[in-house]
Design a protein that fits this description.
Elements lengths: L1 H16 L5 H17 L15 H4 L15 H4 L9 E7 L2 E2 L12 E4 H6 L4 H7 L8 H8 L5 E5 L8 E8 L5 E4 L2 E6 L4 E10 L4 E12 L4 E8 L5 E11 L4 E8 L4 E10 L5 E10 L4 E10 L5 E10 L4 E10 L7 E10 L5 E10 L5 E9 L3 H9 L4 H18 L4 H15 L8
Parallel strand pairs: 1-5, 4-7, 5-8, 6-9, 7-9, 8-10, 9-11, 10-12, 11-13, 12-14, 13-15, 14-16, 15-17, 16-18, 17-19, 18-20
Antiparallel strand pairs: 1-2, 3-4
Helix pairs in contact: 2-7, 8-9, 9-10
Length: 438
């Protein structure tokens, strides 16, 4: 752990010298690297990291400033795209923007890359208003801030309905034996605008990959943001995904997270409601096996009255896999008439699988409607017996029960093609073929 930290600290000056930024961002980066040097990587001594250790992950000798570039063709990445929808595409290969595989635009809105926004004077004001304004200053986020240079930059101006979804995909090709990425995304959706975004990180080799991603999302008044994260990488890849969301009055934000792959996934999702009449929905499905580890750490911060939040996470764990759910709903004193719902339900398919669940309500207001619940169990043996008695084999019967278990999460997916894709991923994860879509 110490070796990687020292390598990152010693690489920072070289990184700064090879990027073209203004003094404002330089000062933020310099302060962030000092913060990382002081705090370092999170350990299990921290309450929020009690059940997730990075020790094994950090023992690899990662290349932190990759120089080699691999050229990919569309046929190499097609199966990882939602290719049956018309969409904008922001594609990165080994940390570098790949223009010939991407489809961006500056016509009436900016759907492009962060490096361009950081280096061009016309974006200076929006960078100063939004870059690193809501991200935490913990060690892992500060590390990303220090090395932030590339990622998606999306700015949707007022009164704009973005007709096409936006796909943000980061590919690693295996040029380096072990590689560390620090992608940074900024999403700004102005008043009364609407957008749908799909995000994915995908390794194309069996080499070790460690991604430490930070996304800042700003939902201005009356805006609607529908966000999807598909996490289905191979078992040599690990992901720490830090997402920070700021919602203003009458905005609607929803996020669906589908965690099926990777050796280790840690999702840090921090949402602040900073206006009245806000709607927030976060949902997730986790299906893992072998020795995979997925940790969902969420915070919904209710700062104003008359708002709603809905949180629903479901997990299916097999073999020696480990799941963690640490969901916190904070209702501040001034946030009266809040309706907050939180649910975490888990199924263990193996007696060696583990789930650590900690749903939390922290309420300082007295006129609220808040509820939470958590269940951990096994498959309903009576339901399984019933299906088998109707001639359905064990595997298919198990899959049907799992589909039923996850169904309410998929029902709220607003893009039919994503629902179909996730349906197929679940079937593949369970090792069965199902002739229907949810």
């Amino acid at each position: 752990m110490t070796d990687l930290k020292e390598k990152l600290l010693s690489s920072f000056i070289a990184f700064e010298n090879q990027t073209n930024i203004d003094s404002y961002v330089h000062d933020i980066r310099s302060e962030a690297i000092k913060q990382f040097e002081s705090i370092g990587f999170p350990t299990k001594k921290l309450e929020n990291w009690k059940y997730t250790s990075l020790k094994k992950l950090l023992n690899n000798d990662y290349s932190v400033l990759p120089q080699l570039n691999n050229v990919l063709e569309f046929k190499d990445i097609r199966k990882y795209l939602i290719d049956d929808i018309d969409s904008y595409k922001i594609i990165f290969v080994d940390g570098k923007y790949c223009s010939h595989l991407s489809e961006t635009t500056h016509e009436g809105m900016d759907i492009c890359i962060l490096s361009a926004a950081l280096s061009q004077p016309k974006y200076e004001l929006i960078i100063e208003n939004y870059f690193n304004k809501i991200a935490n200053d913990d060690g892992i986020t500060s590390l990303n801030t220090a090395f932030s240079n590339e990622g998606a930059f999306v700015h949707i101006p007022k009164n704009k309905f973005v007709e096409k979804s936006i796909q943000i995909i980061h590919f690693s090709t295996g040029n380096e034996s072990s590689l560390m990425f620090q992608p940074r995304n900024i999403i700004v959706v102005d008043e009364n605008s609407q957008v749908q975004i799909i995000e994915r990180h995908q390794s194309l080799s069996e080499n070790k990959v460690f991604t430490n991603s930070v996304t800042e999302i700003y939902a201005e008044k009356k805006s609607i943001i529908d966000y999807y994260k598909i996490q289905n990488d191979n078992l040599q890849s690990s992901l720490i995904d830090n997402t920070y969301v700021n919602q203003e009055r009458n905005s609607t934000f929803s996020m669906h997270t589908f965690s099926f792959g990777n050796e280790l996934i840690r999702n840090n999702l921090n949402i602040s409601q900073n206006g009245q009449f806000i709607e927030t929905t976060i949902k997730g499905v986790t299906i893992i096996g072998e020795q995979q580890h997925v940790d969902h750490n969420t915070l919904i911060n209710h700062n104003k009255p008359n708002c709603n939040s809905h949180q629903d996470y479901k997990g299916i764990y097999n073999n020696k896999s480990t799941g963690v759910f640490n969901g916190r709903v904070l209702v501040n004193k001034q946030a009266q008439k809040i309706n907050a719902f939180q649910s975490n339900n888990n199924v263990l398919l193996s007696d060696k699988a583990t789930i650590n669940a900690k749903p939390q309500l922290e309420i300082y207001a007295d006129d609220v409607k808040c509820s939470h619940g958590c269940t951990v169990g096994q498959l309903d043996k009576n339901a399984l017996f019933y299906l088998k008695s109707r001639g359905i084999p064990q595997k298919e019967a198990t899959a049907l029960l799992m589909y039923g278990f996850a169904n309410n999460i998929l029902e709220s997916v607003k893009i039919p093609e994503i629902k179909t894709r996730i349906n197929h991923l679940i079937a593949n994860k369970l090792g069965v073929k199902i002739g229907f879509n949810l």
